[in-house]
Amino acid sequence: MEGTVEVEFQIAWDGSIQEVKVAKSSGFALLDEASIEAIKQAAPLPIVPGRIRIPISYRLSERPERP
What we know:
Number of helices: 1
Largest sheet: 3 strands, antiparallel
Order of helices and strands: EEHE
Radius of gyration: 14 Å
Strand content: 35-45%
Number of strands: 3
Strand order of the largest sheet: 2-1-3
Shape: elongated
Helix content: 10-25%
Mean pLDDT: 93
Structural class: alpha+beta
């Protein structure tokens, strides 16, 4: 599973997250849901007026083997 999710949200006056939603799906519900949870858990955030839209990318990579 790999992909990029675009998440859109607003920050309330107290730094909490409001109206978080997937603006563009990765094609995988699990990644989309994980992105929403990541945004929610980032609160409290600095107050920024308006809507914010950010991409969150998930990529698989090989880990180096342990000796």
